[in-house]
Amino acid sequence: MAWLRMTRLWALRTRQDAMALWFALRHPATPWYVKALAILVVAYILSPIDLIPDFIPVLGLLDDIILVPILIAATMRALPAPVRVDSREREREWSARKLAKPRSRAGAIFVILVWIAIVAAIALWAHAAWFSPAAPGAGA
Predict the structure, then answer these.
(1) Burial of 28 (C-beta count, 10 Å sphere; 0-12/13-18/19+)
(2) pLDDT greater at residue 118 or residue 83
(3) Distances, alpha carbon 135 to alpha carbons 18, 71, 123, 127, in Å
(4) First to last CA, the chain
């Protein structure tokens, strides 16, 4: 049962760090490159659409279990220490007041655009593979 307790604590810390990133985005001392990474991470987390849909067995949950915590941890480590401390404090205040979880339309749009790009790349590959004439001298 110790592993279950550890897993719950890890999940809670990941959730807290995700909200701290939300506050770090608005902090004036956050470097631009960390803001860019944080925007991508927070937009993906708050997006109502996953890059890998949850209904796909096993793979659908891998992004939530592995990818998201790694991205959050990497972005939190990239923050300057004072920004990290301030953002975590603001997250604790937000959590204590039980405010609603923010949503990100930009995150949803980003994920939709990624899916469109993937589908377009597959369509171009399929078209080139199936409908292009054989190369001259290919012997077919």
Answers:
(1) exposed
(2) 83
(3) 51, 44, 20, 15
(4) 64
In the predicted structure, residue 58 carries a pLDDT above the cut 80: no
Amino acid at 91: E
Quote the pLDDT of residue 52: 75
The conformation of residue 30, written as its DSSP 8-state character, comes to S
Count of residues making up the chain: 140
Longest pairwise C-alpha distance within the chain: 73
Residue 19 and residue 95 in contact, taking contact as beta carbons nearer than 8 Å = yes
* 46/91: higher pLDDT: 91
| Predicted local distance difference test score (pLDDT) of residue 13 | 83
Confirm whether pTM is higher than 0.85. Answer: no
* CA 114 – CA 40 distance, rounded (Å): 12
